[in-house]
Amino acid sequence: MRAHRNVCLWLGHYFVLLTVFRLFYSRPDFLRRALALESLVALVLFYGAGLMIHRLVPRLGGLENFGLLLLGFALGNNVFLMAWLPGEVQLVNFVMVQVVAGVALRSAWRFALAQCLCVGLALASLAHWVDPGLVPGNTFIVLSSTLLSAVIWRYLNRLIGALSQLREKDRVILRQRTRLVRELRASLANIRTLRGLIPICAHCKRVRDDAGFWQQVEAYVRERSEAKFSHSICPSCLVDVADDFRRMGIPLKPGRKA
C-alpha cells in the first residue's frame, strides 16, 4: 500500500510539471488551456488517490482493485487524448499502462484484463485517429510491450513467491526459536544449583551451613535446590544393618540376602 501511495504521489508530481509545460506550450490558446485542464484533473486524481488510499482500498475490496481502477482511468485518459488530438499518437501512454500493470498487479485475471483493455483500446485508437501508414509500426510496439509486460509480471510473481517462501521459513524459525527460548527460560527458572566449596564431615557426612550448624546432606541440598531424595539401602550396607533390622522386627524384602 505504501508503494502504491508513493506511485500515485509521484504521478501527481509528474502531472504538475506537465500542466505547467502545457500552459506555456506554443499551441492555440484554447487547446493549450484544455490540455492544461486535462493534466490538472489527472494530478488532482492521483494526489487524491495517494492521500486517500487507506480509505479507498477497503471500499474497493483490495489493493489490486484500486490499482486496476487507476489503470482504467489512465486508459480512458489516453483514448480521450487520441480522440481529441487526431493525428497525434499517444502510444507511450498505453505502453506505460501495460508496464505498470505488469509491475503493480499480481492477480492473473486482473493482469490479463488490463492487457486486453490496453491492446484493444490502443488498436481501436490507432485505427480511428491515426494515419493508416503509422498503424503497422505502432501495432508492433503495442504487441511487443504486451510481451514485455508479461515477462515482467511473470518474473515478479516468481520473485515474490520465492521471497514469500523465505519469509514463511523465517517466521517458522522465529516461532521455533521463541518457543525454545521460552522453554529454556522456564527450565532455568526451575533450576537451582549448588556452587562453591561444600564443608562436609569426612566421617558422618554432615554438611556445615553458613551459620555453622551441621546438617544432614539431604536437608542441606533440599534447602538449596529443587532436588528430592528417595531413600533406600545399597547391597553392601544391607549386610551391615541386616542384624539391626532383625532385632527391630523389620522383615527384609523378598529376594534380598543378608
Automatic annotation (TrEMBL):
Protein name: Uncharacterized protein
Transmembrane segments: 7-25, 31-53, 65-83, 112-130, 136-156
Superkingdom classification of source: Bacteria
Organism: Candidatus Geothrix odensensis
Keyword vocabulary terms for this entry: Membrane, Transmembrane, Transmembrane helix
